From TrEMBL:
The entry's keywords: Gluconeogenesis, Glycolysis, Isomerase
Function of the protein: Catalyzes the interconversion of 2-phosphoglycerate and 3-phosphoglycerate.
Protein name in the entry: 2,3-bisphosphoglycerate-dependent phosphoglycerate mutase
Family, per entry: Belongs to the phosphoglycerate mutase family. BPG-dependent PGAM subfamily.
Pathway: Carbohydrate degradation; glycolysis; pyruvate from D-glyceraldehyde 3-phosphate: step 3/5
UniProt keyword annotation of Secreted present: no
Reactions the enzyme catalyzes: (2R)-2-phosphoglycerate = (2R)-3-phosphoglycerate
Xref: InterPro entries: His_Pase_superF_clade-1, His_PPase_superfam, PG/BPGM_mutase_AS, Phosphogly_mut1
PROSITE patterns in UniProt: PG_MUTASE
Record gene name: gpmA
Binding site for substrate: 8-15, 21-22, 58, 85-88, 96, 112-113, 156-157
Length: 212
């Protein structure tokens, strides 16, 4: 049975500065590069046949590092904006703590964590779900049905939307779901077309060479 691997990109420059990033195309920090290398190490004993990522540099950079570390640099890579991060509209570039002072903590919490609420000029998690999941069903799922192991490197909210679909989570259940940077998760594609989250088989030898 095929496996689906999900990785959120490594720490970005605006993650470090606690800014709303959204569709702004920032790159990885030294820590983010180290996280990507470590993710590659954690996946080094897994077989990968095809990879999907967004159009944003932080995701593509993370993917390229993972594929280099795992020795899979030659596998097909599909880049599509459907996997982009959720757009934060007018909030992009703003510091999150300062934004909470400006608009109020409750309002900013609703924009960040709720399913339906849109920030000014941006997308809700529902909007993100409605572009990520159809893309997954139409383009990624067929690869799994062919028995190919798939790696997706994307973003916190595009992956939250996909996980909501894979795990059949409710609107209330997805609110508290956190996606850490650079930590792979794995789902096995089952014969009944469902997905079962399974642990990744970690490499036998410990390595400590991925510090920034």
């Amino acid at each position: 049975m095929a496996k689906l691997f999900l990785v959120r990109h490594g720490q970005s420059l605006w993650n470090l500065e606690n800014r709303f990033t959204g569709l702004h195309d920032v790159d990885l920090t030294p820590l983010g590069i180290a996280e990507a290398k470590h993710a590659g190490y954690l996946l080094s004993e897994e077989s990968l046949q095809i990879a999907f990522t967004s159009r944003l540099n932080r995701a593509q950079h993370t993917l390229n590092i993972i594929l280099d570390v795992t020795g899979n640099a030659e596998i097909p890579i599909i880049i599509d904006p459907a996997l982009n991060e959720r757009g934060y509209g007018k909030l992009e570039g703003l510091n999150k703590e300062e934004t909470a002072i400006l608009y109020g903590e409750e309002q900013v919490w609703q924009w960040r964590r709720s399913y339906h609420s849109r920030p000014p000029g941006g997308e809700s998690l529902q909007d993100t779900f409605e572009r990520v999941v159809p893309y997954f069903i139409n383009f990624i799922l067929p690869q799994l049905q062919l028995g190919r192991n798939v790696l997706i490197v994307a973003h916190g909210n595009s992956l939250r939307a996909l996980i909501m679909h894979l795990e059949k989570l409710s609107v209330s259940a997805i609110i508290d779901r956190e996606i850490p940077t650079g930590i792979p998760s794995c789902y096995r594609f089952m014969m009944d077309a469902s997905f079962l989250q399974v642990p990744i088989v970690f490499p036998r030898e410990s390595k400590n060479s991925f510090s920034p």
